Amino acid sequence: MNAPRYLNLLKITLPLAGISSILHRISAVGIFVLSLPMTILLVFSLGSSDNFEQAVLFFENIIFKTLFFLFILGIFYHFVSGIRHLVMDFGYWETLSAGRASAMATFVLTGLFSFYLLYLLW
Predict the structure, then answer these.
(1) Where are the domains positioned within the chain?
(2) At 18, is the pLDDT very low, low, confident or very high (cuts 50, 70, 90)?
(3) What is the mean pLDDT of residues 74-89?
(4) What value does the mean pLDDT of the chain take?
(5) Among candidates 62, 70, 63, 58, which has minimal Cα distance to 29?
(6) Domain covering 16-121 in this structure, CATH number
């Protein structure tokens, strides 16, 4: 009989390109979840100068600032990783070493951008 097997997902080691692909999907979910609140805040802040002043006060809250940081970082990562996937769809970077290098480049670019964004926000 084919009995179901217990798979411990924490013991499975994925290649770097696989981790990059999964993070691309996770960033899409994060962007989807945070897009509506961020859009509402943007529309609210554009209503009047008083509304803008109230919206600026949100950025004094560390939780909101962290969510905003993760939202912008998620957009950047999703963009860079999406370009990586598009290049692969055109038939480039399909070897194992090129996939690993492009995934590493995606992580490095996102890391550099995150330091720049932290500098701007804090």
Answers:
(1) 16-121
(2) very high
(3) 97
(4) 94
(5) 70
(6) 1.20.1300.10
